[in-house]
Write a structure and sequence with these properties.
This protein is of the alpha/beta class and 259 residues long. The chain has 11 helices and 7 strands. α6 links the parallel β2 and β3 (122-126). α2 packs across α3 (31-39) and α2 (11-21) crosses α4. The protein is globular. The model has no long low-confidence stretch (mean pLDDT 93). The structure holds S-adenosylmethionine (SAM).
């Protein structure tokens, strides 16, 4: 199946999770992503260099930790994956009672449906995050809601990202949003891979109706995960953490409060 250029970016985190799972001491284990990567008729060795593959692994560990926390507090709540790609967070974290809604562009959802099973508590929705049509499928699922945008809204224009946040804020006030942002220094460095907007201070997204609760570089792992780092990765991530404090990527947790 042919995917669009932005949609193709899903191959990088997929390869990253599969490659990590095959390591002797993986930071996170995701056997389903290995199966999904193998089921695709693609040469994944062409996507992503060493650092490009490490970022999604660290990012996923931080976001998974926040999702796990939400599910501990709200075991029957709903996790909404904005721009799900071929992410297998459901396989990693589902607790048997939560509902999952996975949104992506139509070609990705068609592919996702071929590879991953949909059921009552796991719904897949084709549409753009920046348009309001997907909201009805989320409203049909039980609250409270946690939205996760992992390497998605950064590819939209700033207006597109804001439209997606507008839908979340208008339809689901009181929800929580987890999102990564790319700082201006990193956006300049990554211009070639279509980063659509940059943000040096996620606190400024208060103007979008998002109240910042937590923000960290993607190299700043929660203590439990940090303990699993190999010595080499511990040094590398400390260096990358320092380097990305001014103008790098950040992961943030927001309360969606309304304007
Ligand atoms: C880098 S991938 C990340 C996929 C997934 N979140 C993960 O971490 O594995 C970016 C994803 O965003 C999706 N995407 C891009 N623009 C979108 C939009 N307007 N609405 C919904 N999804 C979009 C792409 O199709 C792709 O699956």
């Amino acid at each position: 199946m042919e995917l669009g250029r932005v949609q193709e970016t899903l191959l990088i985190p997929l390869r990253a999770r599969a490659a990590e799972t095959r390591r002797r001491r993986p930071l996170t284990s995701d056997p389903r992503s290995v199966e999904v990567a193998e089921a695709l008729d693609r040469d994944l060795t062409r996507v992503g260099g060493r650092l490009t593959l490490l970022g999604p692994v660290f990012r996923g560990v931080v976001l998974d930790d926040w999702v796990r926390e939400f599910l501990e507090e709200h075991p029957a709540g709903t996790v909404v994956e904005i721009g799900a790609g071929l992410n297998t967070r459901y396989e990693r974290l589902d607790n048997g009672t939560a509902t999952w809604v996975e949104i992506d562009l139509p070609d990705v959802i068609a592919l996702r449906r071929e590879l991953l099973a949909e059921h009552d508590r796991r719904r897949m929705v084709a549409g753009s995050a920046a348009e309001p049509e997907w909201a009805a499928a989320v409203a049909a699922a039980p609250g409270p809601y946690l939205f996760v945008s992992e390497a998605v809204l950064i590819y939209l224009t700033e207006d597109g990202a804001r439209s997606a946040v507008d839908v979340i804020r208008d339809r689901f006030p009181g929800s929580v949003l987890l999102m990564d942002t790319v700082g201006s220094a990193e956006a300049r460095r990554r211009r070639a891979v279509d980063v659509g907007w940059s943000c040096d201070d996620p606190g400024e997204l208060a103007a979008w109706g998002l109240r910042l609760r937590d923000s960290r570089t993607l190299w700043d792992l929660p203590p439990r995960a940090r303990a699993r780092l190999t010595p080499g990765r511990r040094v590398l991530s400390a260096l990358l953490d320092r380097a990305s404090r001014g103008g790098g990527s950040r992961l943030s947790r927001f309360d969606v409060d309304g304007l």
